[in-house]
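Weekly puzzle thread! Below is a chain. First person to post its structure in token form gets bragging rights.
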Amino acid sequence: MNTIIYKLASGQEMRACAGAGVSLMQAAIQHGVPGVVGECGGSASCGTCHLYIEQGGDGFPPPDEMELGMLEFTAAALKTESRLGCQCILQEEMPLIIVQVPDTQV
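Winning reply:
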């Protein structure tokens, strides 16, 4: 199991555990993390699972053109550590992953 810490805009932190094959978006929704909407269900077509990866994201492949294009239209500011949570699929034995949830998704 992988451990993910979601840092909320309020300063609160929520911890989630998820196995390989689960996306950061799915783990957030399964654990009731506020601010991660996932409106499109994970097809990278809405941008409502935008996250800032602070630590542990080296195990994810770099964003493809579709993800980069969608990130340009997210409600929160685009940063170098911006990713769509639906495109970040957990692998086995990843280190601790820490992500910041933007203050707005819609």
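Puzzle host: Confirmed. Bonus trivia for everyone else. The chain has a mean pLDDT of 95.
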